[in-house]
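Team,

Forwarding the record for the chain on the shared tracking sheet. I've put the sequence and predicted structure together so nobody has to dig through attachments.
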Amino acid sequence: MELNRILEPGLVRVCCAVVMMLVCTCTVTAVTCDAPPQNQLFTVQTGGCSQSPAVVPCTDHFLFTAQPSPAGDPATQYYLDFGDGTTPYYGFNDFASHTYDYPGTYLLKYRAGTACDRWISDNITLNVTAPPNYTPVLHGCTVIQPQAGFSGAPLAGIAPLTVQFTSTSTGANAYAWDFGDGTSSPAQNPRHTYMTSGLYSITLEARDICTNTVSTASMSHFVTVTVQSGTLAITTVPQTANVFVDNVFKGVTPLTLTDTASGYHILRITVPGYEDYITSATVEPSKTVLVQAVLRADGTNASATTAPAVPATTVLIRQNGSVAVTSVPNGAVVTLDDRYEGTTPVIITDVLPGNHEISLTYPGYASWNQSISVGSSQTTAVNTNLVVSTEPATGTGALTVITDPAGAQVSIDGTVKGVSPATIPGLSPGTHTLLLKLDDYYDLSTTANVSAGQNQNYTTALRKAFRPPDVEIILAGLVILIVIGAGLYRLMRKDEI
């Protein structure tokens, strides 16, 4: 069951559960995404596993309510690890029941999260007392080797963008997602909404909670979020006036800008022999804003229809913007104004407002070049499909490394190049040393041949490093102690004889 946590931008519906046949009301409150719940209480029902005389198996009932965040975001999802190696509870109710089959001391870990996936966590110890004349039962965990993996859809769009993530992991019963925007989730298949533009890297930890064995999968720049846009239409008297939006030249009037990022913009309109005209406009998604300006040679400007004119002496504060670049295939080398900026997907930050030249190159594909405009405090999105080149293969080559599981550190000739799956361009033709490292797996060192103008693929499965479970280590220690004790006993008996 999935909760439609973001009903519409800025709103979330919080409904009470129907408990003991009492109907609660539903309210709608604004989402601020400021912080996790302020605190969480944990209550254990008396008379469950705490009954006297003790009985096992026994069932306990837990209540773990949470207070809203400081700005009022309520808790909408809950998590409880029962501490006995069984599948934890995840859901939208703040109560759960669980049956314990064996006496012991259990560490219960509980969490509460808001609709924005901001969580508070804590733990409590639960003692399940052994009944009178109880015969201990040896119980342990079956050794399982989890393999983490995941998918998501959609992986690109405008903010707010809701992505449905799906775990494709095997051998796991507990999960820990990192969405790349400072939020997380313990759900197996969470839905998450990205509120701001950017490229987001995703990490999933899949855990067999009984043996505490963990497998991790990561995908760099897995989700691309861009800003919504509207239309800015500008007319002037006289016509053919130069229009600058956030200090970036956009053309001459009459002018219609159909792909203007939503938000607040400063406009400057100039005509030789006339005073500069400065005003502001707020563009809303999928809407058109009309700006009509009359410029006068005597320097007295008429009011614009969008906002009061700002005096010409006002100093405009220029704030740098950014450029989000993606390509098909990934791994293209990006240069901005002839300066190397990394490989796609990449976000180029601290870019001066204005016009820039961007170039993408990839072995075996034709170079891609374009002029782009970057606005003040705005993110310009560049998305392109590279075309296979018909030119003879020359120069360097590339190597694409894919591992199972994903998330391995990739080093070429002793230099770290990224995390798998990864494409490493700009490699000289010949043999290169490839080293793959991933926690809980054996390092893999091999060689790979790279040809000029080609992208070589290297795919491999990593071998799990064997680590005996804690139960097996304890049992082995007990066996050793028994053998030593038996030997000492025989020696003592021999001395008495």
